[in-house]
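Working notes for the structural subgroup meeting. M.R. asked for a predicted model of this chain before we commit to crystallization trials. I am recording the input and output together here so anyone reviewing the notebook later can reproduce the run.

Input as submitted:
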Amino acid sequence: MEEKPIAQQRLFTGHLVAVDELTVKLDNQQTAKREIVRAHPAAGVLALKDQRALFVSQFRSTVGQMTLEIPAGKIAPGEMPLAAAQRE
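Returned structure, recorded in token form:
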């Protein structure tokens, strides 16, 4: 199955993400809508020590509790992804 993009509209622009609505044409010639969340580039690291994964604990308002996550962060303008990963 293939979807051919035929139109795109920006629905929302925030500090961290933007949301686009994509209209696509399907194989059967009907159209469908797709919502795409576009985020700033980021780098994450799966840190290992003695064959064990290391995580960071961080409070996330969206779920209202502490979560375990891999170290990660946004890539600054002009920064190489590897440099961002090493920073994290």
